[in-house]
Design goal:
Fumarate Reductase Iron-sulfur Protein, Chain B, domain 2; mainly alpha; binds iron/sulfur cluster; about 130 residues
Amino acid sequence: MRIVISADKIHSDFVRQIEESSGQLLLACNQCGKCSAGCPVVAAMDLLPNQVIRLAQLGMEEVLESNTLWLCASCLTCVTRCPKGVDLPRLMEALRVIALRRGVTKLDLSALPPELLKALPQLAIVGGYRKYVK
Ligand code: SF4
Ligand code: SF4
């Protein structure tokens, strides 16, 4: 990924929107990496959780394309490990909401095989709708 850093991006509406929506200060994160070191889902993520924050700090909207936002299980492990008190799941949620508002929809029930739909627990479908559908 090509990274272009500019003051305009760092002070952009995108950064302000993430901070307002999550209630977190992006620059509180000092990139220590403790969140990523303890994340149980990291093997499947295309960006480490601390990399998601770094791109967000830099105002890089490419972060919205990362699968990490959708794989985060909101398990709070990173929250217990963060020395700066950053609530990373809230940041992930804010980024998901921004992505959803831009038209991204990650769950298409009609595309799921009927056998799978029958086997899925109701909770999974309700949870999926809450997390993946705008
Ligand atoms: S543990 Fe906290 S300070 Fe360290 S990289 Fe993760 S979010 Fe940033
Ligand atoms: S809340 Fe998300 S980013 Fe944090 S440890 Fe859990 S799965 Fe990883």
